[in-house]
Write a structure and sequence with these properties.
Blueprint (H helix, E strand, L loop, with lengths): L31 H14 L3 H16 L5 H13 L4 H44 L6 H25 L3 H16 L3 H18 L17 H17 L8 H15 L7 H9 L7 H11 L9 H41 L2 H27 L6 H15 L5 H14 L1
Helix pairs in contact: 1-4, 2-4, 2-5, 3-4, 3-12, 3-13, 4-11, 4-12, 5-11, 5-13, 5-14, 5-15, 6-7, 6-13, 7-13, 8-12, 9-10, 9-12, 11-12, 14-15
């Protein structure tokens, strides 16, 4: 039986034949090993960035595995969109935690993150040994493939999260705001404003019984996680003088703690942290950015590549742990209060508005930096359109389309 594999190989988020059946009543935390196995398969096959990842998660965890219901998944995703950091990784941590406790959350992250981290560390080893040509055609092809993959993911998410006039309007307004003022704080303000607007503009949710999950995170543990997050955020900059490792940990921790939107939004922040001090060359950074589009899993594993370029496997482990640590602290800190809040109709309306804003923010990110960094000539647009058609209608696996784009651009 292979009914637990992601059906949408192209990463078409939330595209399904119909509503998923309700899962069985939640039980006590299960064995963490199945969580690791399912997350590892997702980590090996989930291409396309956070929007597409959430579609894979929805198909696997809701439709196929039936570990949680539609409402729980939608609310979890909305919660993770409110938190800084990589939304898809945070959603995986939350689902693993609900399923198998704190260890389940850790193993869900390990399975989803490890494949791309290993691939990018191997690439970094090659870059350190042989150097790289930042103007190589294959690298440009990877960027063009990313345009098609992200465009398909945004289109699919819009069909679910912004299907009516009020939410579509909120999505467009969010995209306009993000394009006119591309700043992380603007993203936070846009999501909060859309949540307030959604409370009044979106229709009241149909009364449905809320599935209550047995939360493995107590309020005391949640409070400790939030306090530790605040302490590290304040103290790490003061410890940068302790050595290079302390400075690297601070740089990646602050990036993971303060970036909203995840995915491509993290790239300019990381560039400022590692290129400007001279830790990584511009050419090596650009090569890693292009290659990161071609591997499955979260784009935040780009930190593993940067750490490996700086200091081999040791640097990769340090950078990866630092950039993802805020996600664990924030998800576990928020979960004890999440279940009580999500049952309130007013909050559900607010989360609908926030979900629509996320679509708009992803649309803005599709233009800048994804489109602007890749599409420079008519033949670039032609290759993007061909890749989009192969993904959306021919349903080719993303890795195949990405490899094809790299080959075509290299021949050009």
């Amino acid at each position: 039986m292979n009914d637990d594999r992601p059906a949408m190989a192209s990463g078409t988020a939330y595209e399904a034949a119909g509503p998923a059946p309700s899962p069985p009543p939640p039980a006590a935390p299960q064995s963490p090993l199945p969580v690791l196995w399912v997350a590892l398969r997702l980590g090996l096959t989930s291409f396309g960035g956070p929007a597409a990842h959430l579609g894979y998660f929805h198909d696997t965890y809701v439709h196929r595995r039936r570990w949680l219901d539609e409402a729980t998944y939608a609310d979890l995703v909305a919660l993770c969109q409110f938190l800084p950091g990589p939304a898809s990784s945070q959603a995986g941590i939350a689902i693993g935690t609900l399923r198998a406790g704190l260890l389940g959350g850790v193993l869900a992250w390990v399975g989803f993150t490890l494949p791309s981290a290993v691939a990018l560390v191997l690439l970094a080893a090659g870059v350190r040994a042989a150097g790289v040509d930042a103007g190589a055609g294959w690298l440009h092809g990877l960027k063009l493939a990313a345009v098609a993959v992200v465009a398909l993911a945004v289109w699919s998410m819009a069909r679910t999260l912004a299907p009516d006039r009020p939410r579509a309007s909120l999505a467009i307004a969010a995209a306009i705001a993000a394009l006119l003022a591309p700043h992380p704080l603007v993203q936070v303000a846009v999501i909060l404003a859309a949540a307030v607007a959604g409370r009044w503009l979106t229709p009241a949710p149909v009364a449905m019984p809320v599935t209550h999950h047995e939360l493995p995170v107590s309020r005391r543990v949640g409070a400790v996680c939030l306090a530790l997050f605040a302490l590290l955020l304040a103290a790490l900059p003061l410890l940068r003088g302790a050595g290079h490792d302390a400075a690297v940990f601070d740089a990646f921790f602050r990036t993971g703690a303060l970036v909203f939107g995840g995915g491509h939004v993290v790239l300019p922040l990381l560039q400022a942290e590692v290129v400007e001090p001279g830790w990584v060359s511009t050419e090596a950074f650009t090569a890693g950015y292009g290659a990161a589009q071609a591997v499955p899993g979260p784009l935040f594993t780009f930190a593993a590549y940067l750490g490996a370029v700086m200091d081999g496997v040791r640097g990769a482990a340090l950078a990866t742990a630092a950039i993802f640590l805020p996600s664990f602290l924030l998800v576990w800190g928020a979960m004890p209060w999440w279940q009580a809040l999500r049952a309130r109709p007013a909050l559900q309306q607010a989360l609908r508005g926030a979900g629509a804003a996320v679509v708009g923010l992803l649309l803005a990110a599709l233009y800048d930096p994804v489109w602007t960094s890749a599409v420079h000539a008519p033949r670039d647009l032609a290759l993007v359109l061909a890749a989009f058609a192969l993904l959306a209608w021919w349903r080719l696996p993303p890795w195949m389309v990405v490899a094809g784009c790299a080959l075509v651009a290299a021949l050009w």
